[in-house]
Each structure stands twice: as structure tokens, then as C-alpha cells.
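re the bet — no i am not wrong, look at it urself. input seq straight from the record:
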Amino acid sequence: MKFSAPLLKGAVAALAIAAATPLAAHTAEAAPAAEAALTPEDARAWLAKVEADLAAFSVENSHISWINATYINHDTDTMAAQYGAELTVKQVGYAAEAARYAQVEGLDAETRRKLDMLRNSVLLPAPSRDGAAEELNAIATRLGSAYGRGKGTLNGEPINGSDIEAEMGNLERTPAELKEMWASWHDNVGAPMREDYARMTALANEGAKELGFADFGAMWRSGYDMPPEEFAAETERMWQEVKPLYIALHTYVRRKLNEKYGDAVQPRTGPIRADLLGNMWAQEWGNIYPLVAPEGAGDIGYDLTELIAQKKLDAVGMTKVGEQFFSSLGFAPLPETFWERSQFTKPADREVVCHASAWNIDNVDDLRIKMCIKENADDFITIHHELGHNYYQRAYNKQDYLYLTGANDGFHEAIGDMIALSITPEYLVQIDMLDPKDVPSADKDIGLLLRQAMDKVAFLPFGLLLDRYRWGLYDGSIPEAAMNTGWNELRRDYQGVVPPVERPADGFDAGAKYHIPGNVSYTRYFLARLLQFQFYKAACDTAGWEGPLHRCSFYGNKEVGTKLNAMLEMGASKPWPDALEAFTGERQMSGKAMAEYFAPLKAWLDEQNKGETAGW
């Protein structure tokens, strides 16, 4: 899953550093008499100073982070850690002060919005009492290290995290081997974290309450321009819109697995055994596509990697093609500094971070991408995705500092993914990379859509339940004694998957997923999966596209560019429904566009599933 820059600017999107810093040092001045004297003017003046400080610091921090990512050594690691710690101190201190100012009567809507952003900017809120921050920081560090050191077993031999993930997608592995890897990873990595995680939950809840939230989960849900409980209901509504599509996919895949492995391994009805889906967490199923592919789906008539070679496109040439996509919509060319300062390929003389990311170093137009581009289809698509982030960053660069980010945390990824969806055969014809006679015929569509759905649709319930589980821990609806059973019940309810072996009540299977011990909110990924299709459909509608949605190209349509820019340039300056409406004409996030995109696949799945028992 690609994500954008390490610094999508704004305190609400700063580096995800799990350090916890005492609030007491920053709240000593907060005597009751002083609080009573605060005025709306005081709040606005304070915010102006905070934004000026964070804006200046973010530029320094970005330069250091860039150097660290492109010249990895002891010294750059040291500098990055120092700046990261300083950023965390600022965030925690400003969040505590923002909580005070939020109590002031008569605040205008914009002031209140910015104060809420600052209160939500702390990744892991520590209570202000003596020793609590140190304890929380120690726990967070232990959890991160435990995950990083985690090992499972394969045929009785230790196997590390990255290798075991790859082997879970190896179709040559037997069900017994898959079961062993799944169980050993969850037992060895998750279970030992249980006590620490329960303690971290209690401390973070206490810290969130000091910032004025009901609990830590409510703090996370408060960043969406609506009451926390309303946001939870909205995400459930969106899930219900795409659930029939997921159930149809689940039913079809379960039958194929039953045909492959037999009733003793995978029954024809009920939930799917989680370890058979090609992924340790059953969150994306693309690795097992060869097991479920419809007959004749293999050859689509062209190979994008071969087309890149035929055009003699190198890393920069591929990026120029991506820029051309945005230029065709009316966006200004990327600045010359982009071409001078970006990392396009892996240097031969040093270690760098190759994970693709998009940056705006100075919050204005020092745009860059950092990749180790290979001349293949995957990286061609990734370039379009990352440039989507860059153009978003530049579009909102005139906003106040706290607004220099996406309208909500799902928007940035969704923009990049929407652009990636646009790399259709029709687009490749328009840019003279594909001969019109080589455009795949309609009989190839089902295979292509099924392959996409195995990742994009299969992910949806997992993307939703990861935070739902944590919300339950934070508000007590999942008691500590039910930490493991609560997790596996949610997985069965939402995903229709079950562990391959009986799970102990005193285990902690959730801890075997990085984002749980890493304390990374996950709802953003659920939102992005749906928003990308909503954005894509809006662009296609504006362009007057009349064919199947999944074949749409809006390349060259200036009206699409104008409407898209109207949304992008807002950044986070307005509630996200305003930004969404500017481009799509809608004020609700929705799964309906995804359902329309995959409608031909849904009809085909329904035909394939006749006589099968749907659901679990």
C-alpha cells in the first residue's frame, strides 16, 4: 500500500513518532484564574504564533528528513531522531494548550477548527501526572521493537516478518505449512504484547481525557468534522453500500478454495480459513488470484512493461508521462527544481529509502518524489499515484499552515489512487503508448476486474474493523478479558474469516498486525479505498464518459482539471464535505461509485454463485 510523503504538512499529519512527552511542562501556566481570563482574541493570537512556529520548524524538519531518507547513515539518523523528538514535544505541548483554549466561550468556527486540529495532532497522548509519559513511551518502544524482532516458523525453522509475509502468498505452500506460519506468527508476536498493550490503552485513554475527549477512540474519531459517534455511523453506512459486493466475492473465492483443498480444509459454506487467502491478515487476496481466475483471463493483449520498453522510457521519461497527465487537465508544469532535486533511481553509492513518497519541502513549491524507479508497469502506475500527492500539495500551498493537508486523512491517498485508476487502455491509446487494435476486448474485463477486486474489495472489511476493535477497547465495550475473542469475533462478523486453529482467550492476535502495536489509525485506508472510486466517477461524469466506468479516461479534459483543483486547493481549510462537494457535487462519502465500477464483476459473480450459500 503506497502512502504519500513522510510529511504531509500540518501538525495533524506530522511524523508518526510514538514518543510521549509529559504535558505538565507545558501546562504549568494553566492556572484556573488564567483560564477564566482567556478570550477569543487570545486564542487567535496564540494560534498565529503556533502556526508560525510550526511552519518554520517544518521546513527545517523536511530538509533533515529528506537527507536522512536519501543518505542513510549514523549522522543523518541522529539528526532525524533529534528533530523528530523536538516535533513531538511541540505537538504535545500545543495540544495541551489547545485544550485550554477550546474551553473559551465565543470562539469562531475557524478558531475552534484549528484548536481541534492541534488537540488531535498527538499520536499517543500521555497523562500529565509524574512518570506516566515515561511509562507510555517505554511501552510504545517495547511494542515497536517486539514487532520488529518478531519471527514465526516454517517447517519448524524460524522465519522473519518480511519473509513470512511473502511465504503466506506462495501458492506452493501446503495448508499445513500455511497454518503453521499463521499460528506461529500470531502466538510469537501478538500474544507477548497483551499486557503492555492493555496498559498502553489505559494510559492513552487517560491522556485523551485530559485533552477533553471521552476516550482515545473518540479522539481519533474527532478529526472528521462531525461528532465521533456520527462518524462511526457514517463508516458503517459506507460499508453496507459495498457489503453485497464483498459477500459475492467471498462466496466465489470460498468455492474455489473448497475445490482446491476439499471440505476438510475449507468447507463449501461458512467463513474462510484466514491462512488460505494469500496474506497473513487476509486483508488482500491478490496473491491467490491464479486459484480463482476465470478461464481465459490470462492474456489481456498487451504488456505495459513492454510498452515502456518500446517507448524507451527511463525513470525520468516515465515521470514526464505522469506530468503530462496532469498538464492535459490544465495543471501547471512541475517546477524545474522537481527534476533537479527528486530521487528517481536508487543511487549506486549509498543506502536510501526506496519506498515511494511525495514531498513538498518548503510548503510552497519545492515538490519532489523519492523513488527507486524500475522501468516496469508497477512503477509507472506508482509514479502517477505519487504525482497526485504532489499536485495536491501544490494546490493547497496558499492555505494557513494547519490546513496544509488533505480534507480528511482519506483524501490524499484517494487522490493518488484515483489517478492510478485512470491508467486504462484508453488512456494508453491517447498518449500513444498502445495501438488501438491492442485494446483488450470486453471478454477480458471480468478477469481484470476480479484481479482488482481481490485487493481493493477484499480489503474493505479489514480496513474498517481494525479501528472498530480499538474503539471497543478504548471505550470498554470490548473488556480486557475479551481482547482476543473480541478481535476474532469482529473478523468473523466483518470479513467472514476464522483462524486455522483454536485461539486462546489469553492471546492477542491483533498484535500480530503492525498498525496495532505501532498505534497507527487505519480508518484512513478504508476511506481512501472508497473515495478513490467516488473521485474517479466524478471525473468521468464531468468528462461525459459513456462507456463502462472501469474503462473511462478523462485525459485531456480541462473541465475535470478545474473542478479537481477547486477541491485540492482547499486543503483542510473547510470541512471535508465542502471539499468533496466542490469536485463530486456530493456531501457524503460513499461506496456507490465502487459498486458501479465493479458492477459487471458483481453480475458475473452472482451468476457463478448460483446454488451457493452466500455469507457465513
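see?? The two ends are 28 Å apart (CA to CA). told u. also Confidence is low (pLDDT under 50) at residues 1-34. so pay up
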